[in-house]
Amino acid sequence: MSDLSAFSLAGRRILVTGANTGIGQGIAVSIARAGGAVVGVGRSGMDETAEKVSAAGGRFEAVRCDLADHAAAQAMLDRIWGDTGPLDGLVNNAGIIRRADAVDLTQADWDDVIDVNLKTVFFLSQSFARRVLADPERRGKIVNIASVLSFQGGIRVASYTASKHGVLGITRLLACEWAAKGINVNAIAPGYIETSNTEALRVDPDRSAAILARIPAGRWGTPEDIGDAAVFLLAPASNYMHGAVVPVDGGWLAR
Ligand code: NAP
Hints:
This protein has helices at residues 22-33, 47-55, 70-84, 107-133, 158-178, 199-202, 205-214, 223-234, and strands at residues 13-17, 37-42, 60-64, 89-92, 140-145, 183-190, 245-248. With 255 residues, it is an alpha/beta fold. It starts with 12 loop residues before the first strand and ends in a 7-residue tail after the last strand.
């Protein structure tokens, strides 16, 4: 008889930011399929995700929060924990991208991206860790959504590339500080995934063809591809993984 309990999220309650669409929605559905409960956080309605999670047999709680405001994000996590109970995992998925030539990028495009993609990721992780560390019996898992642009330069996405290099750095730093204290901090580096984040690339026939030709798997990724990797990093199977960044990119970084 097979025992897949190391890959199960049964009894676990996991907060996923940016859960209304794209990769966040895929992660929420995968968590539900693995038996976990999802607290979805976002600034938009999450009805579609709620329906998909419920169809997968999971429980979904929706919480509205604008993650551009890191203090509001911290207060939101404290409120969830204080009012409705502890969390076992945090998936820092929400993110934005602004495309412009480096000579034209505005300070607003810099600040907006760094605030959501990096500053809030750090301070939400800090709030989560403070709660976990307050209870010596408790363990926690943090999964950050990085990017292949945590390793590469990219084109016309200066603030995004800076933010994702930063996510890689704080993933490693937080893993070093918390590994011995019961918190695993790891990251996933998605390649080119079919979501609104990459819509501008997919509607440009030249960029779209060039990207596809470079992906060894011969296809763009789907949110589910990322969701299933997230389940592994949230489950007991990855208990000895700290500060790792798992590329889920169809082989893009291997090329
Ligand atoms: P997406 O479909 O645009 O989803 C982004 C999510 O972040 C949405 O739920 C969005 O909510 C949320 N969000 C953005 N700003 C927010 C804010 N201020 N407050 C609350 N929520 C906010 O893009 P995606 O591709 O799924 O992106 C998810 C993550 O994967 C991002 O960190 C992205 O950088 C990363 N990633 C994506 C790819 C890719 O190829 N798609 C590759 C590498 C990494 P709204 O719908 O309300 O805007």
